[in-house]
Write a structure and sequence with these properties.
It is built from 13 helices and 3 strands, in the order H-H-H-H-H-H-H-H-E-E-E-H-H-H-H-H. The chain has 310 residues and is mainly alpha-helical. It folds into 2 domains: 90 residues, DNA polymerase, domain 1, CATH 1.10.150; 132 residues, hpI Integrase, Chain A, CATH 1.10.443.10. Helix 6 packs antiparallel against helix 7, helix 7 packs antiparallel against helix 9 and helix 11 packs across helix 13. The longest helix is centred in the N-terminal third of the chain and has 22 residues.
Length: 310
Amino acid sequence: MPTAVMSSSLLADFERYLRHQRGLSENTVRAYHGDLMHLAAFVAAVSGESVDIDEALEGATLGDLRSWLAAMSTDGLSRTTLARRGAACRAFYMWAADAGRVDSNPALRLASARPSVTVPTVISADDVGTLLEVAERRCDDGNAIHVRDWAVAELLYATGMRVGELAGLDIRDVDLEQRLVRVLGKGAKERVVPFGVPAKRAITQWLESGRPLLVRPDTDGALFLGQRGRRVDQRQVRAAIHGLCQLAGVDDIAPHGLRHTAATHLLTGGSDLRSVQEVLGHASLTTTQRYTHVSAERLRATYQLAHPRA
């Protein structure tokens, strides 16, 4: 079966545009690259000729794009994956048409599946309390990593930030006096998020008695460090939260689950959607609205347990 060759100046230029002009994350850039490589291979296979990636993408028609999405749907790909691949396709051809790299935009009338709305996994306020209490008690042994994990867990829940955002924090981003943290989110957009007294206490202990034990001569200004004195990575943060869940005996949850949990608890506590949107750094209010489903489900469960005529 004919396929597109692996090199592409067109995709390389598109990736530079995504990184430097749209400020998208490396994960998104890699995903879009893979989606467009898949499209190029499909178009080459349909044409029955051996063409390179640029030729395949430049020659794709609206019919090709629709057939591509239909074939993936038949193969059983999720609506979420189909929606992302459709978005990658539309973003690419909009850029290519504006840059004069293609004669016309074949994706202009391309419709794709909307991602399925999933209810985020959250844990109760009691379970969060247990998790954080266990994290704090574990610091009694003076282990710097245990102090770090407590501060990480407190800050994740207090702010609802993404794990990548937390790993990218520098000391200068935290204002302990005002209890504010400056977060660099998706699209290189900054936001300032408040945090509470428990998180301040944990961060203070980390800065005073934990971080100094790990700092090395070549350590930069990173807020959270790993065992070797380098900036903590996302994998280490995930392992820390999973480990704390196990120690606390609560349902296992990832750092992103703490983000979902924080958002849900804010809404349940009476916060409005716009405020939660600002805290989480969502570009669209629609993304924030999914947490209302969680609040509604919790309300329904409470109602059924408590009301005699439920």
